[in-house]
Each structure stands twice: as C-alpha cells, then as structure tokens.
Design brief:
alpha+beta, six-stranded antiparallel sheet, 5 helices, globular
C-alpha cells in the first residue's frame, strides 16, 4: 500500500486540476480595490466579443462626402466596446460645415449591472488662480452620483494618435481657459447585463483633423482608444475612478505642446489612467489619399 501512495497523490492532483476542465462560460474577476466580485458570462454581448476586424477599416459613400473609420471591437473585463468615427464633409443640416461623430457601441458582459462613470462639472474660469482651492485638497469620498441616460463629450472614450516614438495626442480638444478640475458630481450611465447600448455624440472636427493629419505624416503611427472602465454598482466610486477628458488634459499639461490653457488638479493624489480607463491599441487607420486631401482642404479653409 505504501508503494501505491505516489500514484494516488498523482491521481488526486489530476482530479483537482481537471475539476475546472469542463467547459464553463463564466469566470470571476475583482473590481479595483475591495469592490464586489463580478461574473463575466462569455455568452453575453454577441457581436462585440468576437472582432470582425483586425485593423481599422476606412470606407466612404459613393460621393466621397461621408467617410467612416470602423475600429475593431474590444473586450476588457465586463466591457465589450466598438468605436466608429464618422466624417461628414457635406452635412447640410449644419450649414455645410464638416462634422465628426463618434458612434459608440458598448455592452456589459457581466451578470450584474455596471456603471460607466464620468465627471461633468470639471472646471470653471477663475480670475486669480491664487484664490482657488488648495493644491492638496482631499478627494471627495462620498460624491454626488447622478444617473444619466447617455454620454456627453466628457464621458466619451479618448481616441489618440501618434508616432510610436512620441506621446500620443488626443482627438478631443482640451479647454483653453484656466480652471480647476473638480471631482464631483459623478454621472453614471447604467448598463444592464447583455444589453447592447448605442450612442452617437458629435465631437469637434478641427482637433481630430489636426491629429489625423499629423499622425499621417509620421513614419510609424498607431492609435489608442482609452475606454472608461465599467464599475460594479456597489463599488466605492470617487473622482479618481470616473472618466474625465479634462482630468486627462490636466495630467498631460506641460508634457504636450498641443494642450493649451492652464488646468489645475487640486487633489492630493496622482492622476492614474488605469483607474479610469482600459486601453485598446490598434494600427493607425490607412486613410486613402482622397480623404487626406479633403481633410486638409477643410482644415486650411477654416484657418483662413
């Protein structure tokens, strides 16, 4: 019987290892910090969880007036996402001015409700910076939380382009006025399980055009999409976790010549992009020369 012990131990170890070998469509992960446990169901969000594209795809309508860049779908923890950028050079509803729109598809792969948190009351012009909040202000630990049915400019993903050797620049324009970054209130776009949410938000044409043209001239460029993290409805959320274009601008100020103005983060905590966003990196879209020429034409005309 003594000689059978090693064999029995090996058999027991094999049984333990194979206990999870059965096909299981769920898995667990933990929110940042001490948040509740969330369960991912791999059967949820069909159509977003299996990318149809491996690189961004660019297409246009027959007249060459509307151009669409479709980025590959992306999954991270509970979130499944896809971004489509729409350039419209005709847009008669807006006086013929070119427009740029983010079409966002997002879905919650977890079996519990998730919240897409973002800041809305970010900064305000002040006459004298010295009279503003202290530079070591405490982060509000119990901020006001407000339910919202959709996303605004401040809750959008951040789309960045740049050469692999230089910091990336963001399509969404940073403000030029001086002000403080505020960490409350926090808006919450609530996402039920396995529900496909589609949003369209107009963004500023000029900064996106500038970023694309600059990246097009680089020898080697790539694109990054920072998607706001989804948090459990019971997670302890502060401004450190909420998506914030303004906060991102303030953190990059001084490191990026493209960011104007003076934004001040008064809080006694460093900016942590990992708390706010998950990162999707893709190839830089291969823009046809016809599109680049049209983009440059509209940029040049707006500068005159």
């Amino acid at each position: 019987m003594v000689h059978d012990l090693p064999q029995r131990l090996l058999l027991a170890a094999t049984v333990l290892l194979c206990a999870g070998c059965a096909e299981d469509s769920t898995r667990e992960w933990l929110d940042d910090g001490d948040g509740p446990v969330s369960v991912v169901n791999d059967a949820y969000c069909e159509g977003l969880t299996e990318p149809q594209l491996t690189a961004p795809e660019v297409s246009s309508d027959q007249d060459g007036e509307k151009w669409i860049v479709e980025y590959p779908s992306f999954t991270s923890e509970c979130g499944a996402y896809q971004l489509t950028g729409i350039f419209d050079f005709s847009d008669p509803d807006k006086g013929g001015e070119p427009s740029y729109t983010y079409a966002i598809d997002a879905c919650n792969r977890c079996e519990e409700q998730k919240n897409w948190n973002y800041l809305t009351n970010f900064s305000f012009p002040i006459d004298n910076v010295g009279e503003g909040p202290p530079s070591n202000a405490d982060i509000p630990r119990d901020p006001e939380l407000r339910a919202t049915r959709g996303l605004t400019m401040e809750g959008l993903p951040l789309v960045q382009h740049g050469s692999t050797e230089k910091p990336k620049n963001t399509e969404l324009r940073c403000p030029v006025s001086t002000g403080w970054v505020l960490y409350e209130p926090i808006d919450q776009f609530r996402m039920a399980s396995d529900v496909w949410n589609s949003q369209q938000v107009d963004v500023n044409f000029a900064p996106a055009a500038d970023m694309i043209l600059e990246a097009s001239e680089a020898v080697s460029s790539e694109s990054t999409i920072l998607w706001p993290k989804l948090y459990h409805q019971e997670a302890a959320i502060t401004g450190l976790h909420a998506a914030s274009r303004i906060d991102h601008c303030a953190a990059a100020e001084g490191d990026d010549e493209h960011i104007p103005g003076q934004l001040i983060r008064p809080y006694d905590a460093p900016y942590d992009v990992e708390k706010k966003y998950v990162r999707q990196t893709t190839e830089f879209p291969e823009w046809p020369q016809e599109f680049v020429d049209k983009l440059r034409q509209h940029v040049d005309s707006s500068d005159n």
